[in-house]
Amino acid sequence: MPVLAIETAGSRGGVALLCEPDHVFEATFYMPRKHVELLPSCVSSVLRAAGVKEPSLIAVDVGPGSFTGLRIGVAFAKAFAQARAIPLVGVRQTEVVGLPVAAWWPGRVAVWIHDRREFVYHAWASQGKVGRESVLEVEEAVEKLRGRGDVLLVGTGALRFRELVKKEAPGVVVAGPALAHPTPAEVARQGLARFEAQGPDQLFQLEPVYIQPPLSSKED
Hints:
It is built from seven helices and eleven strands. By secondary structure, it is of the alpha/beta class. The protein has two domains: 3-93 and 181-205, Nucleotidyltransferase, domain 5, CATH 3.30.420; 94-179, Nucleotidyltransferase, domain 5. Strands 6, 7, 8, 9, 10 and 11 form a six-stranded mixed beta sheet that branches. The chain has a five-stranded mixed beta sheet with strand order 3-2-1-4-5, sandwiched between helices.
């Protein structure tokens, strides 16, 4: 079952086509605010490289993440799925980042996604499960880590606040860039697993995950 994955939740976007567990065609880019221009050509490129005319499933990262990026990615995925009558599933960025790490880390995995300013989306990941996200000021998020010696911190927030965490919660292991960003290939894997377990999402009910921070307004 070829799975086409769309990743636009953050500054690094891309597309992947998962043909087999270890057989992936992927095109990625680092061009914030350019998702809408680059997605169609990326999709065409991976399908052409794989020799696949149509995928059997579409998976899309629904966030939390960039308001504009998520809106573009989800809208593109829904339009593509509707036009070709292909099933669609949404996966959360915290699942894409946290679940692969939780599969091998013996303790708890904290996923921090940098929201901007001094806020992060925070969620705990364990083997096979990610809890619900909350938006926290970084000082509140650090409080959840203080005194812990079994935690691995991953995500873009881990990069942004690495030095602060090392100072305030020295027992926490802070991962580097390799475990910070969601990848299109992992979106495809998580989407296939969700589809096999739960079936497709309802096309017109699938929406980006927008979690409002404790601010009166939020710019993208």
